[in-house]
Amino acid sequence: MIKAGTYDPDKTGNQVIKIVYEGQETTLTINVKDYVTGITINPVSVTGKYNDTLSSLIQANNIQYTVTYAKAGAQTPEVLAESMVSGYSAISTQRSKLNSNIHRYRRR
Q1: Which among 23, 50, 71, 73 counts the fewest CB atoms within 10 Å?
Q2: What is the model's pTM?
Q3: In sequence order, what are the residues at sequence separation of 6 or more whose Cβ sits closer than 8 angstroms to the Cβ of residue 64?
Q4: Rounded to 5 degrees, what angle do the CA atoms 92, 95, 97 make?
Q5: 32 or 92, which is more confident?
Q6: d(CA 25, CA 3)
Q7: Half-sphere exposure for 60 (CA within 13 Å, toward CB)
Q8: In whole angstroms, what is the distance from residue 93 CA to residue 6 CA?
Q9: Is the peptide bond before 9 cis (omega within 30 degrees of 0)?
Q10: Secondary structure (DSSP) of 22-36
């Protein structure tokens, strides 16, 4: 059984918890990490020309993403990287919905 008052699920960082079982007691250090609650991309819509590269669209429109954590809140916006986007075709004239793959973002 975890000893009352030794673990706080709302506190991030290392915590030393006490475990008691049949009169014996030991400690365990755990690291409670913050978690992502949202990711936003700004601007949400851009227009390009036929044969524009994804890189040029990102640069010309200053496309940025912001990661929001449960405890730390919204982080500083960062420029979107071409490697974070899938589904783009420079030779399509149809409106495209792109997917962003920002799941590897780590808070600094």
Answers
A1: 23
A2: 0.66
A3: 41, 42, 77, 78, 79, 80
A4: 105
A5: 32
A6: 9
A7: 11
A8: 59
A9: no
A10: TTEEEEEEEEEPP-E
